[in-house]
Specification:
The complex is a heterodimer. Chain A is 0% helix and 50% strand. By secondary structure, chain A is mainly β. In chain A, strands 2, 4, 5, 6, 9, 10 and 11 form a seven-stranded mixed beta sheet that branches. A four-stranded antiparallel beta sheet of chain A has the order 1-3-8-7, with no helix packed on it. Chain B is 0% helix and 53% strand. Chain B is built from no helices and eleven strands. Classes of the chains: A mainly beta, B mainly beta.
Chain lengths: 107, 117
């Protein structure tokens, strides 16, 4: 199975900050990498697919980059509604695997 | 619009089985695989498997092999996930999610399954 490792596991930041979350795959997954946001009590919400494509309806302050084994999710200017947990997921092969999550908290 | 509506909360005793449903609407049922993902309290997302609604073919995570069954009823655009031999470790919220072009773009609202004696 492909292991997905996110860093950091948690992060404190302020409104307006620029934030970057990283995700590393245990083997190359080309650009088959998705990012999800999850708020408490809610289902995950797709933000970025294919490493860098913005899902329809997602604000442009979210962006993704990377290929192979190393990927990043960047939020250019944090808004109050962005405080949540973020997960990466590889869709290169089955079983699909998720990172352990990054909890983004208000400083 | 695409919607995935799941069945309601379940409380089961250890050793029992649970069957969760996920009814799809707003898209052609046979076009997209349906995945099941679970989340234990305070934990991350865990992929369980997928079902191809067109063929009924399935692929399960090794962890759940022999204990999980995914099925579909095309007449009512519904997929099912049955998990047997439940233990307290199976207490979690279970989600179905549509995968289109290798991304899960629509998710059900989640079904809480509590396993307790």
């Amino acid at each position: 199975d492909i292991q997905m490792t996110q860093s950091p596991s948690s992060l404190s930041a302020s409104v307006g900050d620029r934030v970057t979350i990283t995700c590393r795959a245990s083997q190359s997954i080309s650009r088959y990498l998705n990012w999800y946001q999850q708020k408490p009590g809610k289902a995950p919400n797709l933000l970025i697919y294919a490493a860098s494509s913005l899902q329809s309806g997602v604000p442009s302050r979210f962006s993704g980059s990377g290929s192979g084994t190393d990927f990043t999710l960047t939020i250019s200017s944090l808004q109050p509604e962005d405080f949540a947990t973020y997960y990466c997921q590889q869709s290169y092969i089955t079983p699909r695997t998720f990172g352990q999550g990054t909890r983004l908290e208000i400083k | 619009q695409v919607q995935l509506v799941q069945s309601g909360t379940e409380v089961k005793k250890p050793g029992a089985s649970v069957k969760v449903s996920c009814k799809a609407s707003g898209h052609t049922f046979s076009d997209c695989y349906l995945h099941w993902v679970r989340q234990a309290p305070g934990q991350g997302l865990e992929w369980m498997g997928w079902i191809n609604p067109n063929s009924g073919g399935t692929n399960y995570a090794q962890k759940f092999q022999g204990r999980v069954t995914m099925a579909r009823d095309t007449s009512i655009s519904t997929v099912y996930m049955e998990l047997s031999s439940l233990t307290s470790d199976d207490t979690a919220v279970y989600y179905c999610a549509r995968e289109s072009q290798l991304r899960s773009d629509y998710w059900g609202q989640g079904t809480l399954v509590t396993v307790s004696s």
